[in-house]
Amino acid sequence: MAAALKGRPTSKELLTATNIDMVVRDNVFRMDTRTADLQTACEYRGTYRLSGEGLDSEGTRTCTAPSGTTSEAYRAEQFTVDRNGLLRSMVRTASGSRSIFLGACWNGRLSFARSPNWSYHAEATGGSAGA
């Protein structure tokens, strides 16, 4: 699939405020996310392995939104939380969507944002654009 950079996204397209609850222990990766507007909730369930300064995870993502429930494989790459409490990761799904997860901890709380799959779109070769 050929990919081309699309126009610059608006701030609304760029980040989605999201609450996160995560447990990483004994080779089990569990992450639950819910958008701040309470419209979409996702559960990530899988395993992980240490990789560089963070970890990689693979498993199943199940999301419930007003449009229905979807379930598909995911892969989180370079999932890190640094000593300053900054969280980041790239998450790819089986359908081809890619999201960048960014977060920061302060005052004992995690603020979190997810970018939608806005950077690339499918062209000419019959691929599909992600959500």
Helix-strand layout with pairing:
Layout: E1 2-5, H1 11-14, E2 16-25, E3 28-35, E4 41-51, E5 54-65, E6 68-81, E7 86-93, E8 98-106, E9 109-114, E10 120-123
Antiparallel strand pairs: 1-10, 2-3, 2-9, 3-4, 4-5, 5-6, 6-7, 7-8, 8-9
Task: Explain what the structure shows.
The N terminus and C terminus are likely disordered. This protein has 131 residues and is mainly beta. It is 3% helix and 66% strand. The chain starts with a strand and ends in an 8-residue tail after the last strand. The radius of gyration is 15 Å and the shape is globular. A hairpin with a 2-residue loop joins strand 4 and strand 5. Strands 2-3-4-5-6-7-8-9 form an 8-stranded antiparallel barrel. Strands 1-10 form a two-stranded antiparallel sheet.
